[in-house]
Amino acid sequence: MKRPFGVSVLAATIGTALLASGCATNLSGSGLPTTSAEQNLPPVEASQELFDKLPAGVRARKTITVGTSPNYKPVEFLEGSKVSGLDVDLFNAAAARMGVSVQWKESPFDQILIGIQAKKYDAGVSAFTVTPERTKTVNMVSYLNAGSLWVVQKGNPKQVTPNEPPCGRTVAVQIGVVQEMEMKAMQAKCGSRKINLLSFTDQGEATTALISGRADMMAADSPISLYAIKMSGDTLEPLGESYDTAPYGIVLRKDQPEFAEAVRQAYDDLKASGHYDQILATWNQTDGAIDAFEVNPS
User: Fold this and answer.
1) What confidence score (pLDDT) does residue 242 get?
2) Which domain does 66 fall in, by range?
3) pTM tops 0.85
């Protein structure tokens, strides 16, 4: 999970992830989405009630401008110049329920909250973990649970023991994630058996290091780990269960509570219609499904 602050250093486990990359670019035009995840269900039906709750500027444009950092496959990533992923399919469907389209704009992760408060973006959708620090200044609508998950090669040939500090192990991570920072902090606890930390600019490179045997294990958010396992051709497996679970949240301005309620209700309606669960299944993320969508969950 992407957390720039408010994360504790764990003695025997790895915490959650943050990411910051990209530049300001318009990634997609308007037009209501039709995703592969929705192909077995009728189109999302727009709600006049939810449309009426949207900010005046959004209603006038009939478009929500969303800041995202699309370098976090499968949650959000680029396919050519188009933004794709789990977050994208979910929010496109929620926007369709609210009767509007989405304009996705690429941004460095650590600039999205600033952009929302500066009214550059109407919303932020980029695997933001809901934290008390964030909800002091913005509204967050929960939509998915995510934890951290270790990954090893199929059969665990390196005999990695779960729930222990990886002292003496070679660990692959993405640069800038909290897992990397906590690994560095954990080095002091390992004495002479230091962690050999392999840090990569792209999560795909970390996954490749594990598949090739260059790394003993990999640490990432559960959605990222589960997707890597699915795409590995049965060469990877989870080590233990996901942990340190917390919700991801859609980020909105604090002075727009009706907007937050409209988004919350849209996700609630997608759950009732089956679109929410089907989209999660498409991305192999059903373990992260939640039943109650909340504004600023505690």
Assistant:
1) 87
2) 25-146+246-288
3) no
